[in-house]
Write a structure and sequence with these properties.
The protein is α/β, with parallel strands linked by helices. The chain contains 16 helices and 15 strands. The strands form six sheets. A five-stranded parallel sheet has the order 8-11-14-7-15. A two-stranded antiparallel ribbon has the order 1-2. Helix 2 crosses helix 3 and helix 13 packs across helix 16. The radius of gyration is 23 Å and the shape is globular. It starts with about 40 loop residues before the first helix and ends in a 17-residue tail after the last helix.
Length: about 425
Amino acid sequence: MTTPAATPTPASATIPAAPAPVVTPAPAGGSVARLRSGELRAMVAKVLADAGADLTPRTIAHTLNRSSGAVGNACKVLTDRGEAEVASVAPLAYRATATTAAVAASTITPAPPRTPRPKTPKPTTSAPIAAPTATPARSGVGGSATGAAVVVTGPVKRPNGMDYHPRLLSGMPDVTALRRLRDAGVAALLYGPPGTGKTSVVEAAFPDCITVQGDGDTVVADFVGDYTKTPDGEFVFVHGPLIRAMREGVALFIDDATLIPPTVLAVVYPAMDGRRQIVIKAAGGEVVDAAPGFYVIAGHNPGVHGAVLTDALSSRFSVQVAVSSDYDLADQLGVDRKAVRVARNLATRQDKGEIGWAPQLRELLAFKKIAAVLGIDAAVGNLVGIAPEEDRDTVAAVVRDAFGRTVAPLALGARITAKP
């Protein structure tokens, strides 16, 4: 799919706001079916529960005839709620948990009839309407997309219910700084190793954000949407996360943006610059303007294989912020002090170029959970086992010095035999 050049919108043709995820350029007299809130998430949960195996977002999207971007966002929400879990990172895949089936049965209802794909689609036009207002400040979060964000004074609730503890950025809480950048229309790129908290700070700063999980298979349709075949054989155009974020005036978080092919990511650029507009060629040249409050923020993992920060991408993000692990927070959250000491030691060696890996906050929080479930020895063994092979000897030596004993990677032992 190619991305058309943006063209100005005639004064008499503006696009009405469409907060729901499914909108179709239907012919006169047609009816349009929209997914209810949480319905796609339930559909994804059902596919995971029925499969009983690890599935990638693209596989699930093919099964449901839905956008991979929307399905990836649904998978992430399910994971944040403990209703699914990440099975692997490369390739990104998910699997069902004990609660997935219950989610699948909670909101799925038969879809009403939908309109067929028009043979000769034309640009969607309508009478001018008032632009949607920006998302207002939410209770307990502070700040808005319409004025200077207030200074955050304590932990911030993320959408998954977990607390985010703000860190300083240029003398102010990072959550406040990001909200003020949004108010000023200055795009930000957060970069650092996986597990350092890039997603956490974005979700804390922008609870209204829509996420696109980037990878090498991401295509233009994952941003703008595509025609989807319904069970009755008809076609509808399902708008993607970029279009929903533009129309609703909310933040769009492009995670792992540098894994997305540059020619695909270019579809977002007209929405970020002074045009704040894109043209959806696949939908017959439909023109979409960004509502007030629309904002783009991205994440970049420099050490991930295949991540390329192009000049075109870098120039679109005027503010670029390095994100590293907050080891002091790991201490405060009750992670074993010896494990934190190991992480600090390895991080120092990583900075010097002696090794390529060090445990981040994500790994330390996992260490705490494993220790609580399987015991400290299992957690320590796992810490050695998750290190890349080329760094494992160094990690094992640092762990031995901190814990006072030689530790092997976590592994299965001899078969358990029944006693006579």
